[in-house]
Structures are given as C-alpha cells and as structure tokens.
C-alpha cells in the first residue's frame, strides 16, 4: 500500500483519541483554556452526562475575531514561547479545540474587553464554518454538542450518564483546588448543581476551598505542609493519621498549578504514611509542588496528566520528609470524626439498647450492660443487681491509692492533677475492661486503648534505634550471588554504603552480578535473591532503598506488637499517667502500628448534648 498524507480531519480525530477520552476530558480542556485566559468565573452546563451537551462560559480576556479561525486550527496556541521547556500555562499543545471539533459539533463565541461585539465560529465533524458576528458579553462561551457523533465507535465505550457526570464533577473539583479565587459552577441535566464560591489565594482561602471540595471536616483534621529543598517548594495540607478514606480519590497533587496523577507522588504519599495507616486506608491530601519549569516535563502525554521530574529522588524525598515532619510537629491528635462516631453510637436506636420505647428501655439497657461485662461484673454473685456492679468497694480496689494522706499532701495532689488536666490527654481517672484508660482534660473525656498506645511507643523506640546506629548484620557462610542486568547491579553498587547501614553487605561480583555477604539480623531467614531484586527495582524507579527500610520497619512493628502492654493488665494510676505523657511526647501516637486509633476524645460540649443540656 503506498504512503499517503492523512487528511486534516483524520489527523485531528487521531489526536482526539489521545486527548478526548470522555466528556470529562472535554470539560478539562475547556476549563483550562478559560483559566489560562484569566477567568474569575467559570460556568459549566452538561446534558446526557456531557455526551449531548457541554457548555463552558467564562469572563476571561476573550479572543478577537481575527484569531478565531486560528484557535480551531491544529497546533496554534498563544501560550507557548519559543522555549518548549518554559511552560507556564495549563494548555500549550494547541490540539484540544480542533480535536473536539473533529468528533463533535463545536461552536465558540467570544468577545474581548475592547471589542464592540462578539464573533462566533463553528465546526461540525471537522468541517469549519466561516466566522460570523454574534452577541455576547466579555469572555468566551464554548458549546459542544453530540460528542463522538463523527466517531460512533467511541460511544460504545462510554459509561452511563451518572458515571460520566461524576467524572466531570471530579475534574472540576480537582482543578478548582488549584484556583481558589475563581468561582466554579457545574449544572447537569438532573438539576444537580455544584457550586464552589471564590475565596482568595492566601492560605486561609486555600483551606476554605479545600473544605468546599473535601468536606467541612478536613480543615479540623489536617496539618499544613510547607517545605523547600534545592529550589523545589512543597505546600498544602495533609490529614492526620486517624482521618482516612477507603480509597485514594481524595489525594490531590499539583505541579506548578497543574493537576497531575503521578505515580511518584502517589508512592511518596504512601511512603510518608507507611506505618501510621491501615493497609486498606488512604490519607486525604492536597499537595502543591512549585519548581523551575525547566526541571519538569509536562509534555509526556497529550492529556497532560503525567509529568516527569529531572530529579525524582529529590521530589520523593521532599514529599516524604515534609509530611513526616508535619505529622511529628503536630503532636498527638485524634480525628474529630471519632467523637462523632461515639456520639452516634450513644444515640437511641444506634445500638442494641432497644428502640427507645418507654416500656423496654430499662430492660434493654440492663441486658446490654450485663452482656458488655463491665469491670468487676459477676452475674453469679448478684444476678438481680447488675447495674451497680463495677462501682462497689470490692470492684474499686484496683484503683485504691492507699491510706488517707495529710492536707498538705492532698493539696499537692490537687495541684498536680490540675496541671495534668491541662495536658493534651489529661489526667487518668480509671481503667475499664482492663484495657481502656479513661482520662479527663479541662474540656473533654479521653478514652485510650492501652495496648494500641503502648504498641506505638515501643515501635517508635525500635525505629529510633534502627536509625541511630547501624543495624546488626549476620554474615552468610557462603556469599549469595544474585544475577542482575548490568544497570541494576551498578545502581545497587552505588548504594552499597547506605545498604550497609541497614545490615545488608553487598559488592560487585563481575559483570551483571552482586555478591551478598551480610543480611540484617532482624530479617532472620530471608529470600536474599528476591530482596536484592526488589531493591534494584526500587532504586530504578525512585532512586531510594525504601524496600529494605520497609522490611525492617515491618519486623520492628511485629516486635512492638508482641512486646507491648497486653490487654487485660491492670495499671496503677501512676502507670496510666506515665503512658499518657509518653504518648504526648511521641510522634504518630494517635494511631497504632496497624493504623487504628489509640484514643478517642469526646468534648464536654458533646457530652452535654447527649444529655440534652445544650
């Protein structure tokens, strides 16, 4: 078959296959154009999930009549200088509008601030109509109808209207986070409306926009991040470890204001929360990277969602270090959602305490109380009086502080207690079910899981020991030879000193091979071949040795779990208070090694609401 030049329409349709995947992709391109034009207000209207209609209206600078024809021509743009490495706008390829026009019915109506009137141009399946006069306010309105009518095969791959509308909403939220001073509205054919009022570009305005998108609970359960390393700055907000989601959909990342979905950034976020979250939970974050445009390539894919960093190790290290430092500086904090869950559990009908009917309230509560097994409860000794169990003299002996003390000693104790009430976790008041410490602060009630809390304390101590001195190593009787591609072997050799600090002794063994002479003692019997290959993959992807660190931390977590205070052990008041003080001084103590909360705080105001006092 002879080589021939493809038609302009077919070229644009091929480009549309990369740029325009679904209606949400169209919305993304059009909204980015509006923001590049300096819009302060962007309105989006869709019908049929965006397949029937997409209309984007902005109040930006607009386009003069003579440039409309160029706007729909391939590779024509006002956003790119002669330097492809100096990209400071969201769009720059000049492909979106001609691609959309090749597969849909597209019209663009625009007016500049200086223009006496507006002008309009239309494209239908790649056929461009002449520019004609129109009536419009300053700014631009782009209308897309019958998306993919010119390429009907693509319609078979579209999901339902609700799924496409949800994808569009997610795109708008993702973009809106980076532009808090812009007002966004999205209206659909189901009469649902997403409204994101403009705030301001400062930190407070940014946090208000995050609350609009990520929920009103996020600001109270997040920590500010602000760090800089070698010209790369990272800002944003990250959730405390006890505030999580079941998926990573609420992890937003931006590079020079551009929303991105980058594997390196996602991996760095997982690494930062590695030992404070359960495996099936995800942090809620919004991170903004600012760096020289020449050090990041945003021209990796036509959709512009992927980026490549010149120094990926620097970016990964900055993200992990900044998040961990922020979590450490924040100290011990419990998620506000824990208190909400506790209050919900106490409300009538939320538990097995009956259905709220006056005739069976007391009987249901009594049954549930007996089933729950409070401290000191013994049904055999007193089957008729379960409600007073746990508060009698016999049951309180575990908390007996000894004989009566002098007045001066009592005054000293009161003063010490007052001091403890001002601490984050307060003063220990009791231990229930031989596992939960009940503490009091000046304005709240705190319940601590003693086993989970002590597990975190032991784990952090073991981690500190790991990083403060070389990890003990065990020498192999015979060196283990691992055959690798030459590039992987070279990378491992370059990291040999770092690996030595973690107890892994390696050296080159001819071309494409590594000899392993020592392994970390903590690992015991381990698959050396697999460990070295995993490390080689890690270094190739991220230029780090996190794989070995993660394995050592996993061993430390297991040791901490088995070496901490067990459930069922009675603690004296001094022991309970000592545990609370250690928690306050230990980073990450709000969750255990498995990511479960170590304590829940219930504010006095919440307790009063439970009793109808507020």
Q: What would you say about this model in short?
A:
This protein is α+β, with helices and mostly antiparallel strands. About 35% of the residues lie in helices and about 20% in strands. It has 3 domains: about 10-195, Histidine kinase-like ATPase, C-terminal domain (Heat Shock Protein 90, 2-Layer Sandwich), CATH 3.30.565; about 205-330, 2-Layer Sandwich (Ribosomal Protein S5, domain 2); about 405-614, 2-Layer Sandwich (formyl-coa transferase, domain 3), CATH 3.30.1540.
List the topology elements:
Blueprint: H1 8-19, H2 23-36, E1 41-47, E2 53-58, H3 68-71, H4 96-103, E3 105-111, E4 118-124, E5 127-128, E6 132-134, E7 139-145, H5 161-178, E8 183-187, E9 193-196, H6 203-214, E10 222-229, E11 232-239, E12 244-245, E13 251-255, E14 258-260, H7 263-272, E15 282-283, E16 285-290, E17 296-297, E18 308-309, H8 312-330, H9 336-346, H10 361-372, H11 407-421, E19 427-432, E20 436-440, E21 444-449, H12 450-468, E22 473-483, H13 486-494, H14 496-501, E23 505-508, E24 513-520, H15 528-542, H16 546-563, H17 573-585, E25 599-603, H18 604-610
Parallel strand pairs: 1-8, 13-16
Antiparallel strand pairs: 1-2, 2-7, 3-4, 3-7, 4-5, 4-6, 8-9, 10-11, 11-16, 12-15, 13-14, 17-18, 19-20, 20-21, 21-25, 22-24, 23-24
Helix pairs in contact: 1-4, 2-5, 5-6, 7-8, 12-16, 12-17, 13-15
Structure overview:
- Strands 1, 2, 3, 4, 5, 6, 7, 8 and 9 form a 9-stranded mixed β-sheet that branches.
- Helix 2 runs parallel beside helix 5 (161-178) and helix 13 packs across helix 15.
- This protein is α+β, with helices and mostly antiparallel strands.
- Residues 351-396 have low confidence and may be disordered.
- It has 3 domains: 8-196, Heat Shock Protein 90; 203-330, Ribosomal Protein S5, domain 2, CATH 3.30.230; 407-614, MutL, C-terminal domain, dimerisation subdomain (formyl-coa transferase, domain 3, 2-Layer Sandwich).
- The longest helix has 19 residues, at 312-330.
- It starts with 7 loop residues before the first helix and ends with a helix.
């Amino acid at each position: 078959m002879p080589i021939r030049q493809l038609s302009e329409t077919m070229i644009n349709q091929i480009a549309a296959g990369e740029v325009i995947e679904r209606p949400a992709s169209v919305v993304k391109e059009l909204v980015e154009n509006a923001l590049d034009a300096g819009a302060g207000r962007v309105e989006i209207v869709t019908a049929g999930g965006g397949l029937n209609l997409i209309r984007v209206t902005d109040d930006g600078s607009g386009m003069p009549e003579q440039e409309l024809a160029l706007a729909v021509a391939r590779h024509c743009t006002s956003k790119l200088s002669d330097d492809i490495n100096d990209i400071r706008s969201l769009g720059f390829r000049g492909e979106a509008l001609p691609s959309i026009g090749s597969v849909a019915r597209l019209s663009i109506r625009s007016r500049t601030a200086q223009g006496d009137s507006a002008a309009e141009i239309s494209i239908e399946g790649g056929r461009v109509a002449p520019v004609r006069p129109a009536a419009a306010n300053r700014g631009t309105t782009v209308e897309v109808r019958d998306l993919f009518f010119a390429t009907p095969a693509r319609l078979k791959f579209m999901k339902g209207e609700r799924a496409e509308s949800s994808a569009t909403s997610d795109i708008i939220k993702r973009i809106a986070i980076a532009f808090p001073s812009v007002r966004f509205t999205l209206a659909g054919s189901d009469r649902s409306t997403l409204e994101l009022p403009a705030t301001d570009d400062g930190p407070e305005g940014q946090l208000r926009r995050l609350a609009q998108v990520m929920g009103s609970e996020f600001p109270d359960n997040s920590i500010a991040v602000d760090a800089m390393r070698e010209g790369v700055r990272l800002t944003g907000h990250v959730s405390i470890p006890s505030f999580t989601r079941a998926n990573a959909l609420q992890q937003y990342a931006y590079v020079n204001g551009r929303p991105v979905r980058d594997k390196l950034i996602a991996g760095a976020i997982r690494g930062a929360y590695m030992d404070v979250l359960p495996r099936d939970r995800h942090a809620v974050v919004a991170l903004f990277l600012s760096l020289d445009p020449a050090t990041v390539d945003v021209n990796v894919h036509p959709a512009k969602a992927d980026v490549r960093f010149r120094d990926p190790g620097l970016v990964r290290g900055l993200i992990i270090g900044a998040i961990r430092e922020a979590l450490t500086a924040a100290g011990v904090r419990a998620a506000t959602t824990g208190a909400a869950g506790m209050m919900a559990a106490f409300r009538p009908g939320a538990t097995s305490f009956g259905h709220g009917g006056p005739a069976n309230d007391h009987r249901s509560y009594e049954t549930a109380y007996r089933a729950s097994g409070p401290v000191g409860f013994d049904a055999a000794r007193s089957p008729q009086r379960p409600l007073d169990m746990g508060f009698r003299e016999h049951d309180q002996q575990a908390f007996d502080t000894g004989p009566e003390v002098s007045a001066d000693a009592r005054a000293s104790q009161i003063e010490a207690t007052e001091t403890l009430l001002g601490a984050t976790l307060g003063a220990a008041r009791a231990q229930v079910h031989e596992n939960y410490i009940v503490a009091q602060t000046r304005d709240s009630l705190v319940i601590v899981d003693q086993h989970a809390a002590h597990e975190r304390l032991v784990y952090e101590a073991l981690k500190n020991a790991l990083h403060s001195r070389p990890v003990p190593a065990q020498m192999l009787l015979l060196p283990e030879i691992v055959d690798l591609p030459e590039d992987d072997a070279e990378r491992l050799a370059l990291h040999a000193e770092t690996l030595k600090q973690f107890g892994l002794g390696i050296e080159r063994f001819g071309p494409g091979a590594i000899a392993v002479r020592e392994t970390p003692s903590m690992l015991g019997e381990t698959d050396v071949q697999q460990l070295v290959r995993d490390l080689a993959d890690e270094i190739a992807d991220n230029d780090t040795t996190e794989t070995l660190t993660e394995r050592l931390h996993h061993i430390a977590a297991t040791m901490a779990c088995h070496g901490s205070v067990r459930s069922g052990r009675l603690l004296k008041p001094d022991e309970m208070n000592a545990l609370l003080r250690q928690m306050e001084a230990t980073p990450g103590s709000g969750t255990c090694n498995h990511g479960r909360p170590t304590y829940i705080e219930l504010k006095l105001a919440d307790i009063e609401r439970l009793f109808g006092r507020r």
